[in-house]
Amino acid sequence: EKTEITNNEVKEELLDNEVKSEVLLDNEIVKITFLGVNESALMGPEMKVEIENKTDKTIIIQLNETSVDGVMAEPVFSCEVAAGKKAKDEITFMSSDEIKLNNVEGLFHIFTSDNWDTIGDYPFVALTSEKSGQTSEAVDGIVIVDNEAVKITYVGQGKDSVFGPELNFQIENKGGSTITVQGREISVDGFMAEPIFSSDIAAGKKANASMTFMEEDLTELKNIEGLFHVFSSDSWDDIGDYSFKIEK
Fold first, then answer.
1. Which H or E run contains 13?
2. Cβ–Cβ < 8 Å for 193, 213
3. Tens digits of per-residue pLDDT, 29-51?
């Protein structure tokens, strides 16, 4: 008897077999196995994982400091696993831009479900590929800060968000630990403004970040000045305040 196979079933089978399973983490707490990718998922490309909880407590696994090909990303992932059980889940990258899952790195942040006590942060690497650097290459723009700590490039004004106009930057962390970059004393054409801007960048990685202006009477972004305040994400120790100016 001939069995009919739909195009969707063939596509799903190909995606499932695209990458062989790989153990990303295996210790006394958990075993986390990478099962494959789904590049055509509705909300964005997905990494499929299986998690085994080896402890006698319910745990939750999330992600910190995740990057794709050297650029910081914020995937959606939170998986709760009961004591001694397993679970299958997806790490979803909801980027509005096309993203190819190469050289994915980060930390599995694991904590107890009942009291949120941290168990540990464990590094992982997945989908390593020699075809790297496509997204981590320097972008076209104006370098406005470049020192031993960070390199910050202004890459232009983006489309207005639902909150207001935005300026786009790429930030490179040249240091050996995770940093946070925020804005201070920002002015637009001589008038003080309070935009939303805060970006965490892991050691040696880059981040694409937007500075969003929410002032209702702000219709044009020109002659922007201010400081980038850089500090350690772990200790909150100040690294430096670096002035910048964007003339338009």
1. helix 7-16
2. yes
3. 999 999 999 988 888 999 999 99
Q: What's the pLDDT tens digit per position in 184-193? A: 999 999 999 9
CA angle 205, 208, 214 (to 5 degrees): 140
CA 223 remoteness from chain centre: 30
Q: Using the predicted structure, report yes or no on whether residue 19 has a pLDDT greater than 90.
A: no
Which of the two residues, 1 and 81, has the higher pLDDT score? 81
The percent helix, strand, coil of the chain (3-state, each to 5) is 5, 50, 45
Q: Model's pTM, two decimal places?
A: 0.83
Distances from the Cα of 166 to the Cαs of 61, 154, 219, in angstroms? Answer: 33, 12, 11
Q: What is the mean pLDDT of residues 123-127?
A: 96
Fill in the amino acid letter for 200: D
Q: Under 8 Å CB-to-CB from 3, ≥6 apart: which residues?
A: none
Question: 3-class DSSP state for residue 126?
Answer: strand
Q: What angle do CA 112, 116, 122 make, to 5 degrees?
A: 60
- Which two structure tokens, joined as six digits, stand for 1? 């008897």
Q: Regarding beta strands 238-246 and 191-192, do their DSSP bridges make them parallel or antiparallel, or are they unpaired?
A: unpaired
Q: Dihedral through CA 94, CA 96, CA 100, CA 106, nearest 10?
A: -40
Q: Which residue has the tokens 């962390």?
A: 173
